[in-house]
Amino acid sequence: MECSQLCCFVHHPKFAEELTGFIERHCHSSASAEETIQNIERLLITHFYKKILTFTPKHLGFAQGFSGFTVGWVHMVVPNSGLSRTQVPKAYFLKSDDHICFLCLDSHLQNYKDSKLRSVALDRLKEILEVLKTGHTN
Q: Which domains can be identified in the chain, with CATH numbers?
């Protein structure tokens, strides 16, 4: 668990696998999943907790239909990737007062369907809520 004074990050384990796989398939060799996650975490802290506008509504928004939980989406910034802004993956995340948890991601490069990605996000939301509640996976 990565925690700053403002926020803790607990990501679904499959999220990191998806990001690593995406970067290996579609990005330059100097891009890395670890750097991408650290970068987006810093940007989200700046956006949500320091209240400095970082993202426009084209790049970050909130989804409906997640049973009252605050689930957002963001177009991931992948440093050193060589990707155009239309090729970067879209990620869904759970946001609470002091946690941000990435759930899943996909990209137009992989011909994703947003309805399928939302469905995966809903399934993983249920799993990550259990982790946050108990502190461990099943």
A: 2-132 (3.30.2310.20)
Identity of the amino acid at 3: C
Q: What are phi and psi of 76, to 5 degrees?
A: -65, 140
DSSP string, 50-91: S------TTTEEE-S-STT--EEEEE---TT----TTTSPEE
Residues 7-35 pLDDT 10s: 889 899 999 999 999 999 888 778 888 99
Whether 113 contacts 22, CB under 8 Å:
no
Q: Is 26 left (phi over 0), alpha (psi -120 to 50) or beta?
A: alpha
Report the C-alpha gap between 19 and 36 in whole angstroms.
9
